[in-house]
Design brief:
single chain; 216 residues; alpha+beta; Arc Repressor Mutant, subunit A; Nonspecific Lipid-transfer Protein, Chain A; 2 domains; 5-stranded mixed beta sheet; 11 helices; globular
């Protein structure tokens, strides 16, 4: 592992997590605890298999990731973040907040957009606008894995997987789904662009961003 060789907390941190792909591997492990190697590879379009293996080894050696040899019926190796790895959540939160305005850049239509990537921003930056009301549950279908979004005591909980008895189901591109939940697009405009909304439309309006930077 390369080092900046500087007695500085930022430099020492970048020694561990500053390499290409490293923080995106951490992102995937925050989205779903207990990642198979294939989950990581599929969630990181463009990464070479040997580079993924190398980065995982480095993260293990640094004490940020641990592996579990899961028994049947899983019967495969699962990768998890350690407590030290989980402590990177505020770093990802602020990087995502800082980078959110960049998503509006034009000419990036070829960028990959996977539905399960919605899990982390919705968990970190969104809230329930009516916490005094009964909780709601949404299912998001963005062309890949379904995502469940639930309100819990004013907060938003998310996970990869279909929802049991959702109040509403949004189907479309991840970009369209996020635009609706962020309040950038109304459902009428989003439907004209190809989004489908089934169920209680008011439930969709319960999920909104905390930060103006995310909604901008």
């Amino acid at each position: 592992m390369r080092s900046y060789g500087q007695y500085c907390g930022v430099a020492r941190a970048l020694d561990l997590i500053g390499d290409r792909w490293t923080l995106l591997i951490v992102r995937e492990l925050m989205i779903r605890d207990g990642c198979r190697y294939t989950d990581l590879r599929n969630g990181l379009p463009g990464i070479a298999t040997n580079l993924l293996a190398e980065r995982l080894r480095e993260l293990e050696q640094s004490g940020l990731v641990w592996r579990e040899d899961a028994p049947p019926p899983v019967a495969t190796t699962l990768f998890h973040l350690t407590a030290r790895g989980q402590a990177l959540e505020p770093v990802l939160r602020e990087l995502g907040r800082w980078g959110a305005p960049l998503l509006a850049e034009q000419g990036r239509n070829e960028d990959a957009a996977l539905s399960h990537w919605l899990v982390l921003p919705l968990r970190l930056y969104f809230r329930d606008t009516a916490p005094e009301k009964p909780p709601v549950r949404l299912e998001l279908r963005g062309g890949g894995e379904a995502v469940t979004v639930e309100t819990v005591d004013g907060k938003v909980a998310t996970r990869v997987g279909a929802a049991a008895h959702p109040d509403a189901v949004l189907s479309g591109t991840p970009q369209l789904i996020l635009a609706v939940l962020a309040g950038k697009l109304g459902l009428k405009e989003a439907r004209a662009a190809g989004l489908k909304c089934e169920g209680n439309e008011a439930a969709v309006g319960r999920i909104r961003p905390v930060s103006a930077a995310i909604a901008a």
